[in-house]
Amino acid sequence: MIVSMERIFLLPLLRLLLLKQDPLSVQLWVEKRAAKLATSFLRKIGFIILLRNITIEGYKLDLVCREKQTLVFVVVKGRYLAIFEEWHIRIDQKEKSRLIAAAYGYLKLLKKASVPFRFDTVEILFLEKSFPKVIHTRNVFGKENEL
């Protein structure tokens, strides 16, 4: 789903950052690009992006989207890999609790009687000799919820 222009700019810049051997710069670049690619990907599959990188009650949400009538809270992660390997986002119990707290904080701000919502993840794997790989997982915490 990534256009060919993406490859023209993506890999040379990443290689340049890697040559500088500054892991922090590489990670910041990967996270920034992952957020942009995840947003683009979700729009292409029909999501409406409502908010990006917001903090509610001290908790951070990467993306708040809408798919049809469902509110979707999306966790975005990016990773650079020299070769493809299986990798999935790991959300520990502490991070899960923070995401749920942020989501409920956002839902309280909406002041609506009932809103169906769920949590998704989008993983962007930047591969050295290939286009980025996008892995979208719906409903990572189980069934859809309603407040």
UniProtKB/TrEMBL annotation:
| Top-level taxon of origin | Bacteria
Stored PANTHER family:
UPF0102 PROTEIN YRAN
The record's family statement is: Belongs to the UPF0102 family.
Official protein name in the record:
Endonuclease
In its UniProt entry, the species of origin is given as Candidatus Methylacidiphilum fumarolicum
